[in-house]
Specification:
heterodimer; A: mainly alpha; 71% helix; B: mainly alpha; 0% strand; globular; disordered N terminus
Chain lengths: 307, 262
């Protein structure tokens, strides 16, 4: 009886309890809510990358981790070639600002496949009641899963940035100068990656929390990410007037691209957002609203879900 | 009739045919009437609705961006693979996942009959969900001029595409328990990203077959250098279907119950 937040109280005797069958009770240390939260977070994070699971569960996360890294290596190679031939100032070589667009599809695949993996089984095999009967609160469960998937996406997206930075620093003899230039990019990198990760993970988890069958949850997440993009593109191309431009805010990938542009202080990718004429700051705000809103829906869902 | 089918195959020839039909009918009944079928139907209606909106606004017809967005990105790149993926992996995959496939597999029914029955449902439903929608959307948008060539091209192209997608993903669902994830990667990365970078991949992309067939019928006599030519697309489609079907039969012949679980 150490932690204060325990709900299960082990009575000293068997008197007065109709369920007490006379088995020996547990009187060891109770690690409490915080420990339960950390354990669930770590477990979910490991599950996202397939650690502690059979080999075939590792294939997809490994794929989603390795491909962005390969893309980053290609970027470094391009920079190396450009530096060798003295054309490094033409500005067409992709760097940190372009990375989000290049690796975004892998973040989508990871959350589409792993969000249902993190939630579906607990609902389907009706073990949520076991979680919620212990020190863990329903909110804790939702937040631990959300935190784990967000962290996984952060790792996925930071690895290529780190490779790019290491490459840029090793490319020159002026290591201190290169470090300084890279360091000035990192606040934007961290902001963009964090916002993208939470928004992507939260939206995927909201879908996965409402669809118990993993296969269909995956397809639905995929649809939620892709379909609005196309519809928005059509509506913007039709040019129905300035009011219709606001429809772009339902398209997560375009909104995240605008947010990325705001963080790096560059123009958004050619296509939908520039045509709307909306400021990129709006993209950052919309991304934040989507991230917070989806997280709130996810937490609310687990407050009321039948365990 | 169902009793006759349940007792097994080695009866009369008519009994054998009814085995295939019975399995197909049961599978179709298990797939339709669920919430997900309703969602897929809504997704299938989406291109029609958008095409209608475009026509109403009076601006989009003939606009290359709008037509490409609806016909290519929405129907061929999104709707077609999603529908093929869902039905292809669900016709037998759903039974494997909840463990009832064993009741089908222990019966003395030839494996190719099971595969044929499941494929009829997967392909039939995929075509039924995509092709009418493609036809109506193309007709509303008047793809390829005021005639019917665009609509006919869309129907034929999506029908062939739906057949190949459903067959390939059905075979995949027998090879691995994570067919859906791998199918998504194929669609998103292989067809979506890599095929845009490496032109040789076009020959191994179902989406490219669909686009090539659609284009060949929509604009007869005009060769588009960015697409495969019609005979190549048709031959490769047939090759893909045959290989997938053969793999499915061979896999099911030596299938161990429980191995596709998870």
């Amino acid at each position: 009886m150490t932690a204060g937040g325990d709900r299960v109280t082990a009575g000293p005797g068997r008197a007065g309890s109709i369920f007490d069958l006379g088995y020996r009770g547990y009187d060891g240390p109770r690690l409490g809510r915080r420990h339960a939260f950390t354990t669930l977070f770590v477990g979910a994070l490991r599950a996202t990358f397939g650690l502690g699971r059979p080999g075939r569960a590792k294939i997809l996360p490994a794929f989603c981790l390795v491909f962005p890294a390969i893309i980053a290596v290609i970027f470094v190679a391009l920079n190396a070639f450009a530096a060798r031939f003295g054309i490094s100032d033409i500005g067409a070589i992709p760097g940190h600002p372009e990375m989000a667009g290049a690796v975004g599809v892998f973040a989508t695949i990871l959350v589409a496949v792993q969000a249902p993996e993190l939630l579906g089984r607990d609902v389907r095999y009706r073990v949520l009641t076991l979680y919620f009967s212990r020190a863990l609160l329903r909110t804790d469960y939702a937040l631990a899963k959300l935190g784990a998937l967000s962290t996984a996406v952060v790792i996925l997206m930071l690895v290529p940035h780190i490779i790019l930075t290491v490459g840029a620093v090793l490319l020159t003899t002026d290591i201190a100068g290169a470090l300084g230039r890279e360091a000035s990019d990192w606040p934007a990198i961290l902001g963009s990656v964090l916002l993208t990760a939470v928004a992507t993970a939260a939206v995927a988890l909201v879908v996965a929390a409402h669809i118990a069958r993993r296969a269909y949850a995956t397809v639905t997440v995929f649809g939620v990410f892709i379909v609005p993009q196309i519809i928005v593109a059509v509506i913007i191309a039709l040019d129905l007037g300035p009011a219709s431009h606001w429809v772009v805010l339902v398209d997560l990938s375009t909104v995240l691209d605008a947010a990325n542009a705001w963080f790096f202080g560059i123009a958004p990718s050619p296509g939908v957002w520039p045509e709307t004429g909306l400021p990129v700051l709006l993209g950052a705000v919309a991304s934040l609203v989507i991230a917070v809103g989806a997280s709130a829906i996810m937490v609310q869902r687990y407050r009321t879900i039948a365990a | 009739m169902s009793g006759q089918a349940a007792t097994g195959a080695p009866a009369a020839a008519s009994g054998r045919r009814s085995v295939i039909l019975t399995i197909a009918a049961l599978t179709a009944r298990g797939l339709l009437g669920r919430r997900r079928s309703l969602l897929l139907a809504l997704l299938a209606l989406l291109p029609v609705g958008i095409a209608f909106l475009v026509r109403l606004s009076g601006r989009g017809t003939g606009d290359e961006t709008v037509t490409t967005a609806i016909m290519d990105r929405l129907i061929v790149t999104t709707l077609l693979p999603i529908v093929g993926l869902v039905f292809g992996t669900a016709v037998l995959g759903a039974e494997l996942e909840d463990g009832t496939a064993i009741f089908l597999l222990i019966k003395p029914i030839d494996r190719w009959r099971i595969v044929l029955a499941k494929l009829i449902v997967a392909v039939g439903l995929s075509i039924a969900f995509v092709s009418p929608s493609a036809f109506v959307a193309a007709a509303i948008l008047q793809v390829g001029g005021p005639g019917w060539s665009g609509a006919v091209g869309a129907v034929v192209g999506t029908a062939v595409g739906a057949t190949v997608y459903a067959t390939v993903f059905f075979a995949l669902s027998l090879v691995t328990g994570r067919a859906l994830a791998i199918g998504l990667i194929y669609v998103l990365v292989w067809e979506g990203v890599l095929a845009g970078l490496l032109e040789g991949i076009r020959a191994l992309s179902i989406r490219q077959y669909t686009l090539a067939i659609t284009d060949a019928i929509t604009h007869p006599g005009v060769t588009n250098p960015d697409l495969l030519d019609l005979p190549t697309a048709l031959i490769l489609s047939c090759v893909a279907i045959v290989i997938a079907a053969v793999i499915a039969v061979r896999r099911l012949r030596s299938f161990q119950i429980g191995q596709a679980d998870d």
